Batch of 3 targets.
Target 1
Amino acid sequence: MSGRRSEGGAIDRSKPISFRWAGKSYQGYAGDTLASALIANGVSIIGRSFKYHRPRGLIAAGLEEPNGIVQLEAGAVTVPNVKATQIELYEGLSATPVNAKPSVEFDLLAVNSLFKRFIPAAFYYKTFFWPSWRLFEPSIRKAAGLGDAPAERDPDHYEHRFAHVDTLIVGSGAAGLAAAEAAAALPGNERVMLVEADFEYGGGLLSAAEPVEGLAPLAWRDAALARLRAAPNMLLLNRTMASGFYDHGLVALYERVSDHLPPEQRSGPRQRLWKVRCKKVILATGAFERPIAFSGNDLPGVMLASAAQTYARRYGALAGTRAVLCTNNDGAYDAAFALHDLGCTVAAIVDSRAAPGAGADAARQRGIEILAGFVPLAAKGRRAVRGLEVAALGGGVRRRIACDTILTSDGWNPAVHLHSQAGGSLAYNEGLQAFLPKGAPQDAISVGAAAGILDSDTAIDAARAAMRGEPVEAPVQAAVGPTRRFADGDTRAQTAWLDFQNDVTVADVQLASRENFRSVEHLKRYTTLGMASDQGKTSNVAGIHVLSGLLKTPAPAIGTTKFRPPFDPVTIGAFAGRAVGEDLAPLARTPSHAAQVALGAKMENYGGWLRPAYFPQAGESEQQTIAREVHAVRRSAGLFDASTLGKIEVKGPDAAEFLQRIYVGGVRTLKVGQCRYGLMLSEHGIVYDDGVFARIGEDHFLVGTTSGHAAAITETLHEWLQCEWPHLRVLVENVTTGWAVMNIAGPKAREIFAAVGTDIDLSADAFAHMQYRAGTVGGVPARVQRVSFTGELSYEIAVPWGYGAALWDALMEAGQPHRITPFGVESLMAMRIEKGFLHVGSDTDGTTYPQDLGFGPAIAKKKDDFVGRRSTMRPDGLREDRRQLVGLEVTDGGPPIEVGAHVLPADATEARGTQGWVTSSVYSPTLERPIAMALVERGRDRMGETVRIWDLGQWRAARIADPRFFDPAGERTHG
Amino acid sequence: MLLITCPHCGPRAEIEYRCGGEAHVERPGPHDQVSDQAWADYLFYRANPKGGHRERWLHVAGCGQWFNVARDTITHEIAAVYPMGETLAEGSAA
């Protein structure tokens, strides 16, 4: 609890902000992050670790932070697992730690920490495999829990934006700003965009002290920003992170539009996902500092040198009162100076190099002791740093230094993530002990620290040169010093952390190495190193260095794990954008929708259409409703809105020839005005769709498809025409929503149809079953097909979509004397099962050939090839034990059999060796008994055979039968 | 996400298209004279090369037209877009 506020920083001390952390009130300032405000308030423990529940503090100041993940706000707007370093402080902000119960100060599960040496890498997989991992998983997951997902619906909305730019610059540090200015000045660069993930522009300049091109860092930044804001071709976006680099110059940007405001002040979208197509991308994404692994390096108070520097210079927040810097490079000395100059004692600088660089003199001038050739061994303290034990690198001399803060720097890793996602390769730089971007994939050029150039002025020059088309190369820089390696068996390795968020230690990597996990990808999965939400930004390269030492293999030969988007977590809401709820897949409505709803229809989603399941009346059960509707159709007349049926016009001199190649049956011989049932296959021979097609002119066909399948069939027909038979002169057009279709069915159908008024001769001789007529109905142009899925006398009357509702009303009115009854999809299904009519998708699956449905003879009769024909002749199609579609009569007096129940032989005693399954099943109101259809091995040869049916432990009895249960001769249909 | 230049509509994002797999696959026939192996080659076997590849694409959310694309499967570079029914001269691209 030694953190405090110092002088200086870019915060606005005239705007104090109150916020709550873990239930207590604190104060910060405008310009603070939650992280900097907590440090300034002396909060050193920010959470408990994932696996061992060890107390943890902040180690970074940016998005690489592994420990400081919090639950932001509560209720519907709550966000789990946000990094405190990314949360801009606002008035009334409230956040809590995610992995500590009851509190970070006293955590019940910290007992895990005592058993640390018993929970090495892969411990759970090795230990909890008997009797089943699933038995243990829930409690283990709970112990290892991160934040809680919101239980309520997200009240915010999100949006997507698209943009095309000439140059996109990612990052607004010195190199990014310099590149942006050069890009804006480039002739022909009409659109230039610069994005910064932080709310402040400036990157490393925000915590620097050294002059930049002779100016104070912030003065240089302000001047550059002013020039960019004045450029007419420049778009600047802060709070916007480039989250992914995809093909052909596509970069995804994640803009947090209103997250920085108190929830009640937010308006418009909360976040915005940009998809930006870029001709050129400048990656000025900076670099991440590597922590040093030593025993107890996870104690609150140990942090990255650059983080302490940022907290001090940018936020005026000091992490402690007495610090030690452990480093292997010159750059980190600036962190010690930042703290020293703001009043924090720097007890010593522990430099692994025997001969420290130029920084040493500046340190001595400040009176800071330098321990050259020394490395940290162990941090001392239980819940906070109390001291540091250091040792000479070669062994021997040891010292203990009292301190409350330990700064560490093991060098820098360029943020090569986007470069790598763009397809770029990496080159290992021995001097920096880091992977640097190589080349410029997709014209994406890395500049500045992202290219390994750590000095500002050099980076600025290189960025400008890059915009002139010159290659970027990191200059020769002072090599980083050595890093202490752990001997196999060194017990300190068990408490030397690499991956803080996933609790992976040096000992875990040693174990993986002993067990021969030599690939870095395997190491990652086995130990979970780098698999947390920070994706190993502070741990991956450190882990590679440890593995390299153990395997005696150079780091470049080990390589890195693959960098995948997103660079940093993006909310699901941003990915979804507006495509949520009903807007994800809007439901289509039929012309009579309003009338059906007014009649009390129970509407359901059938393949993207809102359709009535049935029309219940007061006090009716579902089965009673369906029975009433079926009886009405069978005894008098029913009305059904069939507008959803697919309607495709196929027209042209070769239309008949084309469809001859599409349908299983013949087409050429069909006469004008006639309809025919058609079955379509995929090229794999599998039943794909069915429907009635009509020849409405010599070279003009109307192809009917199942509901919801019209678009797919149209696309398939186009594919065959354009790709296989481009010489056929045929046009194909999907007219499904051009024509409303009302289906009037039942013995009184003709009378009711006639009463609406039509110029079509409806007499049985003039207009027979399976015929098509065009004319007018109620004064409106109409296309009428006499077809039947109910088994009754039936007309499908199509009128232009806009007249559909009027036709529904007219038929309902004309049918009043006959008690016309609207019926729904479920009643229609009951009637088609009574007739044994096939329903593709219910009675067929992805293995059903046409011969399984009884189309074998029809195929044999046809000479021509058609789509899928050759596939039906493959050895699998010729097997004699194929499952065939048959009817089932329930013989045990019980209720209908469940669809999906298995069919077994009559002498079966156990549920194995299935011979097929039930595909459709219903209680038949007409026959007053349950009936079913099933795909059964050799079913057609087994008519009359008794079978046993098994369904989830229950045995039933049935008899294989002809599926035409009702009116098998079709006399009613032809009436 | 690829940026594909539809020959009819111009450059559009990949989400507007559907990939139809390898181009120039010959459909064997007539059906009663095709061996099981020849039919299986047509149905299932594809070159799946690392590098230059000719494939069919459909501008499904645009003009609804099919066309051919010569694309490098490693770099995703599109060397040529050409109409159905045409072939690309050897060595001319990808």
Target 2
Amino acid sequence: MAEKMNINPEENTGNQKIQAETTRKEEKKIIEVQNLKTEFRMKRRTVYAVNGVSYYVKAGEIVGVVGESGCGKSVTQMSSLQLLLSPPAKITEGRVIFDGDKDILSYDNDGEEIRSLRGAEIAMIFQEPMTSLNPVLTIGEQIAESVRLHMGLDKKEARKRVIDLLRLVNIPDPESRYGQYPHEFSGGMCQRIMIAMAMACNPKLLIADEATTALDVTTQAQILETLQDVVKKTNTALIIVTHNLGIVARYADRIYVMYAGRVIESGRAEDIFKNPQHAYTIGLLNSVPRLDDDKTRTLVPIEGMPPNLQKVSEHCPFLPRCTQALPECSANGVPVIEERGCEHFAACYNRNLNKAVHASKDVLETKTVSEEHILEIKGLHMGFRVKGKNYGGKTTLKILDGVDLYLRKGETLGLVGESGCGKTTVAKCILRLYTPTGGSILFKGTDLTGLREKDLRPCRKNIQFIFQDPFGSLDPRQTIGDIVGEPLKVHKLVSGKEAYNNRVKELFEMVGLDYAMSSRAPHELSGGQRQRIGIARALASEPELIICDEPVSALDVSVQAQILNLLEGIQRKTGISYLFIAHDLSVVRHISDRIAVMYLGRIVEIADCDQLYNNPVHPYTKALLSAIPIPDPEVEKARERIPLLGEMPSVSRRPEGCSFHPRCTFACDTCSRKVPELVECESGHLVACPVMYK
Amino acid sequence: MKDKLFFSALFAKKIVIVCTVILGLFVLAAVFAPVLAPYDPAAISLKDKEVAPCLAHLLGTDSLGRDVLSRMLYGARISLSISLVSVLIGGISGMVLGTLAGYFGGVVDMVISRCADALISIPPIILTIAIGTALGQSTLNIMIAVGISSIPGNIRMMRAKVLSVKERDFVTAARVIGEDNKWIMLRHLIPNCISPLIISVAMSLGGAIMAEATLSFLGIGIQPPNPAWGTMVSDGMRYLETKPYLALIPGFAIMIIVLSFNIVGDALRDALDPRIRGNS
Amino acid sequence: MGKYIAKRVAQAIVVMFLVTIISYALIQIMPGDAAVIYLGSDAADEELLARTRAELNLDKPFIIQWVLWVKNFMLGDFGKSFHYHLPVKDMIMERLGITFTLGLFALVISVTVGILLGIAAATHRNKFWDNVINVLANIGISAPSFWISLLCIYIFALHFKLLPVQGYVPPDKDFGDAIRHMILPCFIMALPSIATMTRQTRASILDVLNEDYVRTARSKGLKKNVILFKHVLKNALIPVLTVLGMSIASLFGGSVMVEQIFNIPGMGQMVTTAVLNRDIPIIQAYIVIISLVIILSALLVDIAYGIVDPRIRIAKGEK
């Protein structure tokens, strides 16, 4: 017998009896949240962050909560433990039943009862591992604190338990690391410590709130695997809160999809992905790039922006962005969440949703890539002088250790690698924001490395840059019109006020913005609109090459697709070349013609897009691809997972020989001695691994 | 819309409105002192000496028979002009030096920062006294002395702000576009760094008034017969037991004005800081 | 850690030298001839004037003058007072102890009272006591100390006759009387520091309360007081240390005024008299000594930073 979920408050009372009966038959519900409403009351406005959310988690179950930023997924979790600071937060309605009989919201905030649950029965892991640990206390002390408080162990026993916990989460050498401070650990390690802390008292429920968002993909995979292992071993229920559809597809048993402070769809992972029943879920799946995508797939973005939560919407909150709305959607109130199948519920009036919205764009229009090399980088070295251990002594930190690349006119080269691998440094060297310590950068035959700042300035208009952070890259004191027009003034590209205005208008139109907005300040724009301004500014001087440094990673998934499509469209129109830097291999796959993989300041593999994804050769490339979850539970089940050993070392301790060999399962003797060179293994496919390719 | 929000944030507390009104009255009194003052502030009339507050002399007269109210009004003039000029001296020099130190770093930064450190390790009041003594006592020299003692703090603040703003992407963007250092500093850095400096300068107006009053009280500031509030307190001190109002009224005026500057400055800072504005 | 300290010591020495330049430059910018001021009415004697100039090294270039002055200073010769024609060193030594005693008491008062009030205000955020403390702190910063002094003298000494009006009694002579004489001056000297200390403590506690690790501590189920005293205070007091360093400077600044009003024969009173007499050597020596104390305390504060904050201790030290 399927159970009924009570999203609608009116149904609550009537169904409570039935519910109580079903609970007994089913597996025990660890936590059950009913009709939770949370708002933030500020002086001049109220934000209705959570508008009647209900969910439950059964013992030992892994539940995923997905949604874009601002959909209320984190606030929901924080509310259920009364962790939000009040004021401004206020839980106005709802019940949270834990372990059958504990009514959490009836407890005094920070009172005795709720404190005996926090950390002991329900534990949480947060997004920023580095700032979530107290910088002035040792990590051992911070974990031991919890153990001593809830389990009543003495100092010695606590220490023993902490060391066992650290071992459980794979922290090497736990005895000696017990007394270290958080800043002595990497982000991934800090998150492991947070997991150890969360698991310290054998909680019944663990909540991971965007626990891996701040981490690199391979670290993310490691952490999630650890988490999955630990909860399965101890039969702990786990809630994974994330914006990443791939993660929930890979790890979750059941999924809740949230939008505008409501659960709009929930169900078993396979059902959600295979048979989505809400227009938003479908839109989300259509806009997300997948690692296993066909090269010809066009992303279909969800146009518009998530609603402003300062007022409670009268209709379906997704209505303004919905392409499959029916007349009744605007006639009726907010749709009630209803059963659509076994454990599958959705809040959508349209029962006959079109699931595969097909490419609306002219896919066939191909772009032309000429053989001319617009950019050629040879043996690029970049080092920073840093203070060494001795007084006054300086050592050089080699960030780039011989990078070779070329870029053809009109093509997109993807440059991928984890943070700290040097990909942004390559970009900054090309832009001469850094002066390389060795090698050459030929742009259309001119070597940029030797140019003086004064001679360089005229060249700058040919190579432009798009930044990762759409908030920081626009001067908050200028209007967006001035920002876009600035390159025109600097290089005196137009003469006269009228020509200037016309050109700015043209640029606004090129990136899909209304010129009427040009007198606005950047902070009045959404993230996606700002990124469009950044693109317009880069286009202003009609460059031949644009370097895009993670241009979509700060944006919500539905907006990512808009920007990716825009960049592709511009390339088709103008024949511009892109160097596209990103850590997300599924995004890179979509936009790139060729892809280069970097590891610790060296290129380890370059290939055509399809070659690289279908036939990766370097062990690092393989591990990197394997670490990225695909938003499809069925595909995920069939995938082979290649675990990576350890973490990427800092460049100051670059291993001898192949820098990847300490983490490589295939490494042999020669790997630790000789730096492998890039060798062509098939046409256009270069690999720096003599073991895999002889 | 934005300005409306700003003003409603600024005047959210009643005390801020009260203080703004007080400051407004202070400025009016200073500007229109010649019109408002019932007597000549320097006119000595020994037959009217030490008159208690009455209708003819609202705040009484001092030991030389000068009208206290008139002297207070003219004193407001001196306080306001000295604090304005000195704060401008300190603010502009601090802005220029701080921007240079923060933007160029290296040797430039080292020289400027160490000099600021040296100035900061002399208590401001002592630095002001020393410079005032060495320059000789004139109104301009007092302005310079008070101004110089506020330079190091402004340098530090501007430098720290420039250091953080210079790392922001839009400055990199300006370099990528091909702008030169002068353009970057004038168009991007200073406009983005100036608001904390303006706030601090607004707040230091109170401090400057206090510094001038202190100098005058010690007898090394504004020289008699000019009516400075600090001098009036020190003159009145001798009659503390018999006529306490002679010393306490001008002192109270100094406190209220300085307090108002501080409270309005605080409110200004909070209103301009979007982080605080969003939360409260 | 050792390296970090060494770097800070080197910086402090540089700054100290700059201070000596600044204070020596005072003679240079002073209008008129220092020798004339030194001699007073005897300046008419041309020969004596020339001899005095040579004696005061005024005939040499600025750099030489400065080097000689610093050298003498380090050897313990602070020069002679222009006005009293006595060795400045002896004059200062007589008064140093008095000012330092006052300053020390005021410092202790301002640290304890300031931090306690700050904690009280932060834990009662936006409630009655927070507002009261906030208003008091604002007044403490805004009220001119000479005026507060007069007000206190008027109320406590003249009106209620609880405390002496002014003067100084050495503690070894009559301890009780000495304390009674010190209550008002110490409290008034401490007032601005109490106020800044309170505000800084409150602000940084509120900042730290917003940190992610406080959320972590709460999610562990710790008691409010454990979170406040173990997790919050240790972090929040780090910026308060900086204010402590600056307080020392403002305490010395305040001593000038307080000693003058309460007629306490300390260095502050000496320097006020020196200013009125244009007795530059005393002012110079005073500046150098006070700055030395301030620079040393800033150095101690920075070292204390390193001890309190493991990030500095390890990042900047040798591993």
Target 3
Amino acid sequence: MAMTISEKILAKHAGKPQVQPDELVEVRVDFALGNDITAPLAIEAFRLAGAKHVFDRERIALVPDHFTPNKDIASAMQVQVLREFAREQNLKYFFEVGRVGVEHALLPEMGLVLPGDVIIGADSHTCTYGALGAFATGVGSTDLAAAMMSGRVWFRVPHTMKFVYRGKLKAWVGGKDLILYTIGQIGVDGARYQAMELTGEVIDALPMADRLTMSNMAIEAGAKVGIIPPDKTTEEYVKGRAQRPYEFYQSDADATYAAVYDWDVSSFEPMVALPHSPGNVRPVTELPDITVHQVVIGSCTNGRLEDLRDAARVLKGKKVAPHVRCLVIPATQDIYRKAMDEGLFQIFLDAEAAISTPTCGPCLGGHMGILAAGERAVATTNRNFVGRMGHPESEVYLSNPAVAAASAVAGKIIHPGNV
Amino acid sequence: MQIRGKAWKFGDDVDTDAIIPARYLNTSDSKILAAHCMEDADPEFASKVGTGDIIVAGKNFGCGSSREHAPIAIKAAGVGCVIAQSFARIFYRNAFNMGLPILECSEAVAAIATGDEVEVNLDEGLIINVTSGRTYQAQAVPPFMQKLLQAGGLMPYVREQMIQGGHKF
């Protein structure tokens, strides 16, 4: 029987020749992760269940990235739970500040999550690794605890929706704009419980950074996974990083899809998601004047080196508008170093933007850039729910890094071509 | 399992940041989480809600983050059950894992208003709007899932099962 990539990966990990949508399967987990918010509950559940040892000390990562560097005593205590557990279990992958990065940028960069893997993470944006051709999905802390004990997890095999992107992208349009458009079209529950398969000539030509951005936001359409067929770009990204063997899976030509969307994206402009939903999407060219108080360039969605380069291209020789705060947050230490070595920091500093150490920080309203009542931010992050970046009466607009940088310069949301 | 209380109605796409804002996630203390439950959707919710009350919401309830703190906050606030048109995938799983009963029923959601007295029978999947006298049918919660809910979630349930099987902790 013909199968999709997701079905093939799940079948392989369930030890079955094939699986079908809606079937319940128990699968082997290649890698599991938690962060400083979710892992303390998982560790508590692990102990409650009477577990003594994790299934594999090299296949679990604890990444304290959300409230780090620890913003207060309570968050320091949470990280301490992770640290002590990592020591007790002799976990290979626990990261202190100075080495830690935003989890979904860090783990692919380190070659710890790989094509063909089944990956679960107690963080909804675990679906990011679909960009590598992995079946990766977010779970709660209890499911993480069970996987840390057994190395296994049960799933209902999702139906797959196929998205075909055709044409050629205009300047300043990339993965962020494609995924925002997609969520705008199908809605924030448009892919609920389903696998999204992102394909077409535009995806084939898309760099890995943009692919990771797209898969990252699959959860914003309710999807279980946002998977991209692995290819040469995948191979180039993974080789030299991979810490384990990996495998490429491709959907059969006659695989069954629950729905197929086919879009020519040649005329697309950069997209912006307006408050308070990632599905409230409009082209930047159709927006009225919207003044901004803060710009955030970073996160697991858009905090990679390519994203910082896009922002720097716009900011070069310019200044952030008076009364605007522009925060640049490289997602990992490696990205931080490379951005510095390439001279991007010089551009950011000359533009009077602030450069932060890697953290999720403001994306979830944690710290390092919180909004007051009535304030408005443009952010390259993934969610703009009520209160997401601070006060319940603040607003977040989601965009790509170039639009965010342009908006920092103009003090209002604009197309990067108009700076 | 029977649950009875007052209905609190919410709309579509209630996200986990509305259920429990991330600014309170530097703890997993259920009392603190409960005090801020639904804060950004209704700042007075935590002080108004009574034990056994029922949240009634539209489609895609619990969308967004994977935080298990969301069902923990709802349950610790005293809510006995959530009835929605549909649930986001991760929240659905987390709710059972945390021992929070949930039911899907579009007809009940459409007909129930805030303040209505509602009774839920999980064995039969029956939702009774005591105020209007009307009854709605959701899918029944199977017996093993009810045991899991009664135990307080997946891990306490697994632990009970293991102890019954002779395992010593």
